[in-house]
Amino acid sequence: MTASGAATVHAVHENPDWWPPFAAAFDAEGVPVQQWLLTGDAGLDLAEEPPAGVFWSRMSASAHTRGHDRSIAHTRALLRWLEGHGRRVVNGSAVLELEVSKVAQDAALRAAGLDTPRTVVAFSPEQVLEGARRLRADGVTSMVTKHNQGGKGLGVQRFDDLAALERHLASPAWLEPVDGVALVQEYVAPAEPFVTRAEFVGGRFLYALAASTAQGFELCPADACGVDGAPLFRLREGHVPPALAGYEEFLARTGVEVAGIEYIETADGRVVTYDVNTNTNYNPDVEAVAPASGPREIARYLGSL
Ligand SMILES: Nc1ncnc2c1ncn2[C@@H]1O[C@H](COP(=O)(O)OP(=O)(O)OP(=O)(O)O)[C@@H](O)[C@H]1O
Ligand SMILES: [Mg+2]
Fold first, then answer.
1. From atom 28 of ligand 1, which residue's Cα is the shortest distance away?
2. Could you tell me the sign of the dihedral formed by the alpha carbons of 46, 253, 53, 280, in that order?
3. Which residue, 164, 186, 208, sits at the end of a domain?
4. Which value, in Å, is the radius of gyration of the alpha carbons in the chain?
5. End of a domain among 186, 204, 222?
6. Domain residues for 204?
7. In tens digits, what is the pLDDT along the chain, a chain of 305 residues?
8. Which residues form ligand 1's pocket by a CB distance below 6 Å?
9. Ligand nearest to the CA of 194
10. Which entry of 73, 80, 121, 123 is 20 to 30 Å from 169 by CA?
């Protein structure tokens, strides 16, 4: 406990570049916070008591793309140690396993009664092609490939033509997934050219933003603008996720406390949920006009625990 009475929050992550908005938010809320960087610089003594306070993991599935290939394995060890000592961990070890596996996300979303894209899991490029043939046989005409351990739209590419997919798999453009697990899934056509991300803090819906699909797939919400200066992200003012009750059930069942859930609304009335992010970098332009601030709500929530 500090003089103000609030326990310190320890933020477990690996990318200091993403930290400044959170530092500012915790400061503004008067909640003491420290970064716990998982970049391999310090080990753990399992017999030692972890520091007092609340721990919050925002470990990212794409850590390996920043040279932090082992951060996820290191975080697994850290979170087990903290949980073993009875520390309060927000987005703990079970949530980390969801963050790093779109297969795990799909299973948990479906268990909560949500509609997800028809998906085949492939352990080799040959199986990606076999999966695409299987989807084709089921009447799926357009498909996307992606990585099980994703983030930043890694390996996300659309194919309407199996011959083009076959050429892609044999070319240097094919990127081997870091965990050896690729997905090929039904391309879900949005009714309007955007996907939606609904932000949740403490299991509670905060706001939704629309991410334009006009310029393709490799979207990172921290970057505000597209090539022609048109914003890629905008607040969906007043929008309530059509599947909100299902999301609340999903979050309760999985123990996810902080998340951005992505979905597509189709012309024929489907709401298809395809991605769960447990470490949003809140877009500054959206934050400027949103009814609540993601980082501020997180600071307040963690401060209340
Ligand atoms: N099945 C699909 N049908 C249509 N579009 C899709 C589908 N899956 C993914 N997309 C598009 O590709 C983008 C990236 O896919 P996805 O979110 O699954 O990957 P990611 O690696 O988790 O990316 P991020 O970290 O940016 O969320 C989506 O935001 C969406 O625009
Ligand atoms: Mg996504």
1. 217
2. positive
3. 186
4. 20
5. 186
6. 102-115+189-304
7. 444 556 899 999 999 999 999 999 999 999 999 999 998 888 999 999 999 999 999 999 999 999 999 999 999 999 999 999 999 999 999 999 999 999 999 999 999 999 999 999 999 999 999 999 999 999 999 999 999 998 788 889 999 999 999 999 999 999 999 999 999 999 999 999 999 999 999 999 999 999 999 877 655 555 544 455 667 999 999 999 999 999 999 999 999 999 999 999 999 999 999 999 999 999 999 999 999 999 999 999 999 99
8. 117, 144, 146, 150-154, 156, 185-188, 195, 211, 213, 217, 219-220, 262, 264, 274-275, 277
9. 1
10. 73
